[in-house]
């Protein structure tokens, strides 16, 4: 279950990404939207002033890899709820990830990807 803060700020960032990139909203455990051609897109957002990283779940990542999917990254600031920039990246082009236990959350291991790793690569 998402934290209240993640829902409060992450959902507007997700809607921003869907509108900006002309995506089709989807409700699936491993992706949030699709391109018009049906290719899956998992939208990730984070507060750069608070956490500064995106959480990626292994099960969702594996599904994106299997379906040649994409990530859409939307770092934001809470002040004024402003998305700073958006990046799109194929799941297969993500930097190497180190998975760790989530304590049962989403029945999957997760990793944290720093905003700067997405921005510079």
UniProtKB/TrEMBL annotation:
Basic and acidic residues bias: start-end ranges: 104-121
Region annotated Disordered, chain positions: 95-121
Family annotation (InterPro entries): PDDEXK_nuclease-rel
Stated name of the protein: Uncharacterized protein
Top-level lineage group: Archaea
Organism: Halorubellus litoreus
């Amino acid at each position: 279950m998402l934290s209240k803060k993640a829902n409060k700020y992450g959902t507007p960032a997700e809607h921003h990404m869907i509108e900006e990139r002309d995506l089709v909203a989807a409700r699936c455990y491993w992706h949030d939207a699709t391109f018009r051609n049906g290719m899956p897109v998992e939208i990730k957002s984070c507060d750069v002033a608070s956490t500064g990283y995106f959480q990626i779940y292994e099960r969702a990542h594996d599904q994106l890899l299997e379906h040649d999917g994409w990530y859409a990254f939307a770092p934001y600031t809470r002040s004024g709820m402003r998305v700073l920039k958006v990046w799109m990246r194929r799941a297969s082009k993500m930097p190497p990830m180190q998975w760790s236990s989530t304590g049962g959350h989403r029945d999957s291991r997760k990793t944290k990807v720093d905003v700067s790793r997405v921005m510079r690569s």
